[in-house]
Design brief:
Distance between the termini: 56 Å
CATH architecture of one domain: Orthogonal Bundle
Number of helices: 9
Helix content: 25-40%
CATH superfamily of one domain: ApbE-like superfamily
Oligomer: single chain
Strand order of the largest sheet: 1-2-6-7-10-15-16-17
Number of strands: 17
Structural class: alpha+beta
Radius of gyration: 24 Å
CATH class of one domain: Mainly Alpha
Shape: globular
Amino acid sequence: MNKKNFFMLFILPLLVLTLTFFFCFRERTIFLKRQFPVMGTIAEITIYGKDHAELETIMNEAQAKIYAIQNICNTFAKNSELSAVNQNAFQKEILCSPLLWEIFYESDKFHSFSNGTFDVTIKPLMTLWGFYRKRNALPSGTEIADTMKKTGWNKVKLDPQKHSIRFLIPEIQLDLGGIAKGFALDQTVSLLLHKGIRRGLVNLGGNIRCFTDDTPFKIGIRDPKHAELVIQDLQLKNKSVATSGNYERYVVINGKRYTHIMNPKTGMPVSGILAVTVVTPRGVDSDALSTTIFIQGEKIIPEVLKNFPDTWIMLIRENPENPEKLQIRKFGIFVP
């Protein structure tokens, strides 16, 4: 038998067998994607694995985790744990579930870090400005001043030993909208990793956390003035991204649009900034920091980068010389 025939008889079949095994192995990796309404938005979870039935089971657990956090934090549901706190915490000390206590702990941390600009007691101000019930006229200075007396995280007492909360004045009301989605991202990704998922993405209405050891995920950041356009593409492996903007949730009073992001120091909706995007490892950090920077602007960014070194920030303002153009500033070192 000559060398050519030997190659054809032995080497080529081995090559075919190797390639067949390779492509079968590659084809075994599948993904499962699911969308569902939650937290006033649309959630989307994408997970990768080998077995469809196993992915379905894990997906159900991930969805249940997000629903559980919504049921705890929902300020609109009368039977939520947060509503029970809002209704009763002035009359008596309320013991918190582990999840709600952890959210309060994170809220307290960011209130201290932001010197009070991140404040989850803003619900009375949100109500005043018409975010829960429409109003047709601007609130007066007196109304704003009176409402601000009902706000302030310093009027809330947390007991770290008991994991309890107590309001120090009546009419304090909490709204966890600035932190709950980021917290839910971290809880969900932690569950997925614990279940053995090694590649996935969780998107809660633009609050996103992804994880992978493989190809990065491509995330597009929306142009705040043209929702159909992407202003920045990000390639992310193990990061979270959140954007606070004035273009999705707002009220219109006397023909002027006011963003839902409140400055608790003034009692007024923030103006002058269109959007802030923050990329960090943890979802809760990107969520709370995007709100904090939206309120304070550039002045707090050096402190953010000092305390959260693995962070990238994009801040967008209108160009005062040309309203159709944007002023875009980027801070930090981007690491996928």
